[in-house]
Amino acid sequence: MTTASTASSGTDGPEPGDDAGAGSSLSAPATAVGPSQSPPAGQVHDATRRAFFLEFGKQAVTAVGQVAGMADLVGRASGGSVAGLLGLEAPTTTTTRPPEFARSSRGSRVSAAAPAADGAFRSAYRLGEDGLVLLDQRGIPERLDEVLAKRGSDVAHYLRLGVVRGGAVMAQVAAYGVALTAQERVGQRRQQRHHELARTLTALAEARPSARLPAWAMERMRPIIEHDVADAAEEVAPDGAVVEGTDQAAAETAEQDRANDGLALAQRLRAEADAIATDMGAWNATIAASLHDHLAALGTGPLTVLLHGVHGPLAGGVVGSGLSALQRLRDEGRGLRVFVTEARPFMDGARLASWELRQAGIAHQVIPDGAVAWLLGREAVDVALLAAEWVAANGDTGALIGSRAVAELARLHGTTVVVSGFSACVDAATTDGSAIPDELRPARDLAAYLADVPIGTSTALVPAADVVAASTIDLLITERGTVAPQAAG
Questions:
Q1: What CATH number does domain 284-487 carry, 3.40.1550.10, 3.40.920.10, 3.40.50.150, 3.40.50.10470?
Q2: How much is the average pLDDT of 370-379?
Q3: 36: how many CB neighbours lie within 10 A of its CB?
Q4: Which is it for the CA torsion 271, 134, 427, 470, positive or negative?
Q5: What kind of fold does domain 2-282 have according to CATH?
Q6: pTM
Q7: Which of 271, 296, 396, 430 has its CA at a distance of 20 to 30 angstroms from the CA of residue 57?
Q8: How many CB atoms lie within 10 A of CB 137?
């Protein structure tokens, strides 16, 4: 695999407000979400955005309930969670927190929230009045912290920290990050605006090298900016000087024109971000329906499932395909026995997947990663579910670290291996697994979730993703259908 990541040095790049790529003028830090905050002076509430999300939410919840069996989950969630999913409610009231939890490891402030309970639910992200509110997945299930991203460089920083995980949801928040940067730069000259947006696109695409979807989302946003760049030539004289006129009135007119152009670009980018989120919700619902049908066809008795990674809304957005399929089977009366791997070192399974399964009311057991062979040697496991982050043309698949061991052991014991992912994860230019980018996480990731004390002087090698050979995968399920992985390209 090609290494395309930061070394495991224990650093995570600039704080929110720093340039996402190389030296930016974005200096205002992201702030904590708090109930007393109000929109900045002069900021007008955008009723069109709220109306869009209200309508999107109605359609998404309906589709999920009908196609993927998630209506019960939405109904169980407390505290107006549907409004939270759609960005229509104020942040949860903060509470007093112990001093040691007042800041993240890099010093960025986070809001305090009541301890997570099985009856509580938060969406992975939502749009607030003054930015993008991200559920900090590093604290789940003990804490439901939220952080506020005001611009794309903030989002890139939080992606590098691991605040948000899962390619689909990372792609969605990255798209909104671009729109936030465009909104912040409305009054700038086009050349300056385009320069900042280009750096934001690069930073967000490269924030998590082993996940293809954030870069794919940036490629969906890029043509909108490039179209605006083409129009910018009219703004510049042959000698490079900006044409604004000589009198005050002309200068004011030019400034207003810039603002209007900037606002139009920001609105187009926001609309595309909305489209990406909507598409991914629909795709996840389609994948969930296909996965349900496949699992339902595996005999008539109780179904034993091994989950590796997160398969619910924390990784997918409004809809999580794997969790939705399991819940629908449960609602249909199918017996389920679910095992969840720890998914070290971030403990995605023990912390995040297990939390989502409890939300959905699905009984399960968490097992150590090192116990997968033991389990498969003693239990007749019907299917192992993995989630794709990158799929090469030959079907080799990049997935959460530990996925290769799960797939190879499952294959050895006759367990069906099913990988779910969007068709956008498939990259025809990536010939095989050796070309899928590698990613090394900071050493702190290992210390934070496997030990109560720092590693200290020890060095750590913390890969973020595995490559699963196509020969060990039975089925790849995308929104376009179910295929053998070798046919993915």
A1: 3.40.50.10470
A2: 97
A3: 6
A4: negative
A5: Four Helix Bundle (Hemerythrin (Met), subunit A) (1.20.120)
A6: 0.77
A7: 296
A8: 24
